[in-house]
Amino acid sequence: MKKNTFLIKSLFLGAALFFASNTQAQVELKILTEMGTRFSDVNDDGKGVTTAQYYDFATGELTPMEPEALLLTSINNDENVAGIIEVNSNMEAGYKINGEWKGVGFTPQQDPSNDQNFPYGISDDSRYITGQGNEGVNYGGFLFDTQTEELVVRLDPQGEAGASYGVNNNGIMVGWVDRPDGGGTLRVPAYITTDGEFHTIPENQSPTVSWDNAIYGINNNNVMVGSFDLEPFMYDLTANTFTSFEIPQDALSAAFSTISDNGVAVGYAEVDFQVRDAIIYHPTLGEQPLYLKDVLADNGITVDTPDGYLGTAISVSSNGKYIAGWLNGPPMNAEGWMVNLDDLILGTATLQTTTVSYYPNPVKDVLNLNTKEAISSVAVYNVTGQKVANVSISENNTQVDFSNLASGVYFVEVKSNGSVENLKVIKE
């Protein structure tokens, strides 16, 4: 699919120059040279995991995983980890909390000698582990609660198979299910709520192609991303809105792999057979996804890889600052890379709580703001990063009208005396 990207690129350049000049963002790219260092995940501090190592962006150091661990798949801001460990000479899905590895075990319906649970994600609050599990020939997403130590495998009663790729602090699992379709099966994006209920999206619409339809990521504001009919999409559960995005120029297909809590979505575009290039989306960058290498180029960084591509962007930190992935090539041997966007994108600045007080939260109609310094501007953004309101200001005290906004999570950007603070507010 080809399209004219001149307008979008121009909008991006203007936005990038504006935010770079105001936040003095220090964007940086690091590409690892060791084979087999493809990243699986990254957190707000630039701490990431490859399949077998821990990585620190600040120091550039790789550290081997613990002897009992066999594979690393996910890391959160507390540096707790999901992966595979060895238990009694067998492989088992496991998790590390406070430096101690534990196994998730098996359900009563599973046969430990034949069945497996493969972990894909750990929630930011470390309560939930998720992935794909099977009970004999039946496959579905599993959910393990680290507080109650309860393990369940969710088998779709209407389908033939399923998997879960991610879970948020609300315990919502995201992935796909295979539904019967004229003698075959059709893969459909699906999420599962904590009551075990399966939901497919978009509602009342089936994909026309049978592969690469899935929800690959979810943030803590219940915004999901993935691929539907070979195009990237974003679904806001709270607002019940499904948004499909265009495939980047000259690409064959595209998908979002994950989304930060402040609306930075990353993923990849298939630019040729088994050749990918990383993509990024945020409303401040334009209306459609852009190639990440173009964003880097506009900030003075050249992507110097064998094929000129960044390959797959698999993870973005919850604060939207760090992106991790791997270059093209056999996945098990691929070299990993990580980008620090710093404060390039609106809303990723470090939250401060010392100069702005606000109440009530949750808010029903009016949010009151008080600051030590005179307020210069106030704006309200939804969880996908779109500006939904500008606010009239009055010295150190300002009221923000939420009465016309839908229920959900919003970010209130307050500028005062050269500083920027982002407040997370819940509208009832």
From TrEMBL:
Q: Does the keyword Disulfide bond apply?
A: no
Q: What is the lineage of its organism?
A: Bacteria, Pseudomonadati, Bacteroidota, Flavobacteriia, Flavobacteriales
Q: Print the keywords alphabetically.
A: Signal
InterPro entries in the cross-refs: Secre_tail
Pinpoint the Secretion system C-terminal sorting domain residues. Answer: 359-421
The signal peptide stretch is 1-25
Top-level division of the source organism's lineage: Bacteria
* Protein's recorded name: T9SS type A sorting domain-containing protein
Instruction: Write down the species.
Output: Aequorivita xiaoshiensis
> Pfam families under this entry?
Por_Secre_tail (PF18962)
